[in-house]
Amino acid sequence: MSTRIKYLSVMGLIVVVLGSLVAWRIVSNARLADARHVMPPLPVDTTLAVTKPMPIQLTVVGQVQSEHTVLVQPQVSGMLQRVYFHEGQYVHMGQPLFLIDPAPFQAAVASAKAAYLTAKAQADREAPLAAKDYVAPQTYESAAAAATQAKAALQQAEINLSYTTIRSPINGLTGNLTVRADNLVSQTAATPLVTINQMQPILVQFNVPQQFLPRVLRYNAKHSIRVFVSREDGSGNLGEGDLVFIDNSVNTSTGTVMLKARIPNQTTQLWPGQYVSVEMRLAIQPDAVVIPQTAVQAGQNGNFVYTVVNRRAVILPVTEDRQVGDEAVIAKGLKAGEIVITRVPRTLRANMPVIVRGAIRTPAASTASP
Fold first, then answer.
1. Per-residue confidence band for 216, with pLDDT thresholds at 50, 70 and 90
2. How many CB atoms lie under 10 A from the CB of residue 266?
3. Averaged over 352-357, what is the pLDDT?
4. pLDDT of amino acid 324
5. Is 184 helix (H, G, I), strand (E, B) or coil?
6. Which listed residue, 30, 89, 108, 351, has the most CB atoms within 10 A of its CB?
7. Alpha carbon distance 185, 239 (integer Å)
8. Any idea which of 12-21, 83-92, 220-229 has the lowest mean pLDDT?
9. 165-167 and 96-100 strand pairing
10. What would the mean pLDDT of 313-331 be, rounded to a whole number?
């Protein structure tokens, strides 16, 4: 009996020990799992939201167009004798471009001049005779009329002769030459000899949505609106000038208004027909709250940013007013001096502990000019 009791006691002790070991193992695993779920602080890049002057602007796509385009057409028909320029050459106002064979027109001038001198001499002879009633008044009047007509014919012949030398009516860049020397040209031809585009200054035409029209009109009444032109992808400065035209109606099919800016184009980087990016700077907001554009995140309920409060990431809903370059102007939700995470890691979540990587950057002051 005592042996059985001892056996049972030993077995009970073994069960208790095994149970304790199992319980300890469970607790240890739970603690280890909890430890695994405690994430270390996530390194993040940050900056301070700042207040600084920022431009109020609209950015749209525009197209360059010449302010003055001339289709050079012959005013008289004849053999094209000479071409004084090379296609694609820059020409100046008054510069000779073409010469149509002048010989037929010189002969016409000589003939008209002879006819005029004869008619004038006849009228001069009739004048004193008519004054003394030696000839009928109608005779003198006919002679005077003939002289007048002959003079007009001479003037027309001289004008036609002047048309044989075709000169550039503007300063500009010549295009494709459609007719070469030794070919007949006609004043009734539909195709111009060459097209000349004025390049300096030049116009940039663009359209803005109609909802921006009141703002454009308001600022345009206060001061000249500055327009900046860059390549279509927004890179590279191609020139700047002033807004010079606002159309007098809204395009009902697109809901936009056409505007034009005049650019000096001194470096001739703008070319007629070229598509460009147009930035119309309406005014300067002196106290805009600004952060890098990369800090603004899109959510289901609107835009937000991650701020750092007590070393944790905190979601802050914001209203973005506009983007200027790589910076965002915040209208609501953010104050100057708040720490904003500029590059948001994929693993970042709200209330997650974070550690600022390096010093907190402060954006440089805006260099935008009014």
1. very high
2. 10
3. 89
4. 86
5. strand
6. 108
7. 40
8. 12-21
9. antiparallel
10. 91
Does residue 260 contact residue 244 with C-beta atoms inside 8 Å? yes
For residue 234, name the pLDDT band (cuts at 50, 70, 90).
confident
- Identify whether 1 is part of a domain: no
Rounded Cα gap, residues 46 and 339, in angstroms:
6
CA distance linking residue 298 with residue 247, whole number of Å: 36
For residues 99 and 187, membership in a common domain is answered with yes
Instruction: Clarify whether residues 273 and 313 are in a common domain.
Output: no
In a domain, 2, yes or no: no
Task: Classify strands 226-230 and 194-197 as parallel, antiparallel or unpaired.
Answer: unpaired
pLDDT tens-digit series, residues 147-175: 999 999 999 999 999 999 999 999 999 99
- Residue 208 has a CB neighbour count (10 Å cut-off) of 19
Kindly state whether residues 135 and 173 are assigned to the same domain: yes
359 versus 231: the higher-pLDDT residue is: 231
Question: Do β-strands 194-197 and 172-174 pair in parallel, antiparallel, or remain unpaired?
Answer: antiparallel
